[in-house]
Specification:
Chain lengths: 179, 309
């Protein structure tokens, strides 16, 4: 197994600020917008983006929720491993709100497909966008593209993109891992 | 990732502690799901489940049906009263006929102890025991422990007394297994005629005095007097039973601590507990019903994930 660094801590930081600015450009004061981090890994990115928006750009009252899509996945009973659920925490309705899904890596698009179904349990959003730190090109199974992307990566199927966060792994970095 | 150690839920006796933990963790997620504006997930859209009830049931049957529908499974339900069982068909034949219609899982309640086990040995489907005679009622015990965990934080170390008709109760036996497995201490309390002779061999002590039992415990699980299973008189009169083993508000208030009151339902109001106790803050009876759906969703989801495609 070998690993190559794709983004360093400094690069991650610059990208997060750019993504935050792009969100402000579109959503201004976030009065009708909610951020939804997709469990488990999108949670860290969503929290970080919220933190930057609040601290660096003085956007207040951002509603942030976490959505677990385990029970909405299309591969139940199809894989070798059973699916493990995470906590969903959405304390507001998304009816007529602009929803921004936040996830660390966009790969096949199946998680986003499941999330689009899952979010309907909390109301009918007026629109849904997708923000992702890493966009793995040419590997989509479904016609799904991000609205805000950190970095595009070309990776083949036996390679894995791993996003590390200081809260969880002790550093901000993105690695490409080859088996 | 964790999965259940069993392919059927026949009784708590066949589970290990890790299974119970996994069921509770999964039920936590489903409890959140059933409190959403839209209370449904599509996980089991390719699973068909038959609910076969050879004995009367309201709560359990509705709870199972609701759990299955919340998971998007296809559900067929039948009661023995309207079935060919009355025409003399055997249990295996009845179930195999249902399975020929491509059913993946069977939830069964039957008057004979061991009926669910017998079925699991003879048919190709995942079996969930929804009560077999006076033997086990595993989902009830799971939801009872889940409700204790929710109210008191954990089950380990808690003192639970099971009061009343232990002799005819499948709820009692499953609860004893489940509570002990999680590290709780269990006593039973009731008229001597309604306490099984060898109950102490399960590691359970008997306390004939209700007041003493309540002063000892953190949780009192009040069982229903199962008049329909009593072929002879086990106590002189219902009034005397209520006086000796019924809990009223005055008795609860006179204790030196606040205990949690549970009841598996249906309640004989004024017999096991009075209305003011059933509707009091200390009672978790309606929480038990809500938790029942989450627990059954978890059990069905976890068993379904083991059914091969």
């Amino acid at each position: 197994m070998s690993q190559k660094i794709l983004l360093t801590s400094q690069e991650v930081n610059i990208i997060l600020h750019r993504l935050a600015c792009q969100l402000i450009e579109k959503h201004l004061d976030f009065s009708n917008t909610v951020l939804i981090g997709l469990q488990p890994r999108g949670k860290f990115l969503a929290e970080r983006i919220k933190q930057i928006l609040e601290k660096e750009y003085s956007v207040s009252n951002i509603e942030l929720g976490f959505l677990d899509i385990t029970f909405f996945r299309d591969d139940f009973r199809r894989g070798e491993k059973p699916l493990e659920a995470n906590k969903t925490q959405i304390d507001f309705l998304v009816e007529d709100k602009k929803v921004v899904f936040v996830d660390d890596v966009l790969y096949t698009g199946r998680s986003i497909n499941a999330a689009l179904t899952a979010i309907q349990s909390f109301g009918r959003p007026s629109e849904v966008e997708l923000l992702t730190l890493i966009d793995r090109r040419f590997s989509r199974h479904l016609p799904i593209q991000p609205d805000y992307r950190g970095r595009q990566v070309d990776a083949i199927n036996n390679e894995k993109v791993k996003v590390c966060w200081i809260e969880n792994e002790g550093e901000d970095a993105v690695y490409l891992i080859t088996n | 990732m964790k999965e259940l150690s069993v392919n059927h839920l026949l009784g708590i006796k066949y589970l290990v502690k890790e299974d119970i933990d996994l069921i509770f963790e999964t039920a936590d997620h489903f409890k959140e799901v059933i409190n959403r504006p839209i209370k449904k997930v599509p996980s089991l859209r390719d699973i068909t489940i038959a609910n076969i009830f050879f004995e009367n049931s309201t709560r359990t049957k509705l709870s199972f049906e609701l759990a299955q529908k919340r998971l998007s499974a296809d559900v067929i339900s039948f009661s023995a009263a309207q079935s060919s069982v009355k025409k003399g068909e055997t249990l295996i034949d009845t179930v195999n006929n249902i399975l020929s219609m491509k059913v993946d899982m069977v939830v069964m309640r039957h008057a004979n102890p061991g009926a669910a086990y017998f079925l699991s040995q003879n048919v190709k489907a995942s079996i969930v025991n929804a009560g077999d005679g006076a033997h086990e009622h595993p989902t009830q015990a799971l939801l009872d422990s889940f409700s204790i965990r929710e109210r008191l934080g954990e089950v380990a170390g808690k003192k639970v007394v099971i009061v009343g008709d232990v002799l005819h109760s499948r709820v009692a036996l499953s609860n004893i297994y489940a509570l002990q497995m999680q590290g709780a201490e269990v006593k039973v309390c009731g008229p001597k005629t309604l306490i099984p002779k060898y109950i102490e061999s399960l590691g359970v002590s008997v306390e004939p005095n209700l007041r003493k039992a309540l002063e000892w415990c953190d949780v009192a699980n009040m069982l229903r007097v199962q008049n329909e299973r009593m072929d002879v008189n086990y106590f002189p009169s219902t009034r005397e039973y209520a006086q000796q083993y019924g809990v009223d508000k005055a008795l609860l208030d006179s204790l030196n601590k606040e205990i949690v009151i549970m009841h598996p339902g249906p309640i004989n109001r004024g017999v096991e507990i009075t209305s003011d106790v059933a509707d009091s803050q200390q009672s978790v009876i309606l929480d038990q019903v809500e938790n029942g759906v989450a627990i059954r969703m978890a059990v069905i989801y976890l068993l379904a994930s083991k059914i091969k495609q």
